[in-house]
Automatic annotation (TrEMBL):
Keyword Oxidoreductase: yes
Protein name from the UniProt record: Deaminase
Pfam families cross-referenced by the UniProt entry: RibD_C
PANTHER family: 2,5-DIAMINO-6-RIBOSYLAMINO-4(3H)-PYRIMIDINONE 5'-PHOSPHATE REDUCTASE, DIHYDROFOLATE REDUCTASE FAMILY PROTEIN (AFU_ORTHOLOGUE AFUA_8G06820)
InterPro entries membership: DHFR-like_dom_sf (IPR024072), RibDG_C (IPR002734), Riboflavin_Biosynth_HTPR (IPR050765)
Record bears the keyword Oxidoreductase: yes
One Gene Ontology MF term: 5-amino-6-(5-phosphoribosylamino)uracil reductase activity
Record keywords: NADP, Oxidoreductase
The species this protein was found in: Kribbella pittospori
Pathway: Cofactor biosynthesis; riboflavin biosynthesis
GO biological process annotation, one example: riboflavin biosynthetic process
Amino acid sequence: MTDRARVVVSVTASVDGRVTLGRDRLLLSEEAGRVWHSMQPDGADAVYAARNALLEELYAPTAILEGSGTFVTNDAAPLELPPADDDGLYEDYLPPEVVEHPDHRKWFTVVDGRGRVHWDQKGGAGIDLLLLVARATPASYLAYLRRETIPYLVAGDDRVDLALALHRMRDALGVTHVISEAGGTLNGTLLRASLIDELHLVLLPTAIGGRGVPTIFDGPELTLDQSPTPLRLLTSNTTPEGILSLRYAIDPGEGSNDC
């Protein structure tokens, strides 16, 4: 097995570290999206463009990573789908008409071990959808993905094993760098598993507050045998409007390896 794909977390947050407005207020919704957009000061678009250009220049990433929580709320159940036999469904599904398409250039990768997200769009402009699932993912969902010609990789038993998934992405698809634009739950899991190599953080001059509002890194508290993860500052920039851009490295072996 080759080395895993490297992970760069690229996230925008309020000055108090909130990455959305509330636990179940999806930024893809019209209401929350409108409020989040109102937080963007002048110059924000230029900051985001500069960050994306830097990521492209440094890493030429061929995968973007999101969690299912970007698309559905916490209490969303698995999709109700026709029953399916599991014969062969728990093998990786990488249809050549997608993987080898001459226009393909990047994967929009979503972790969905419970099979909760229905897909109306499967990509475009050379970006194709890729699902990361587990052996516990309902067979009916895997059959649905195959009917829709949506590629998936199987990594893990009870839940998606992110370390294994990153190895599989490199082995099977040649992905060397992944940009995680996910929410706090997935990024928190990556942090606890020591799977983050770099953090690109944009802080907006706005405070949100609120108990339980998702943050940059969510998840269980540190246990007694775990340590915080040290970060090494690489660059920092501030705009006249108060937007702060920070780039940190996370050195190999730093922090906890427990997932």
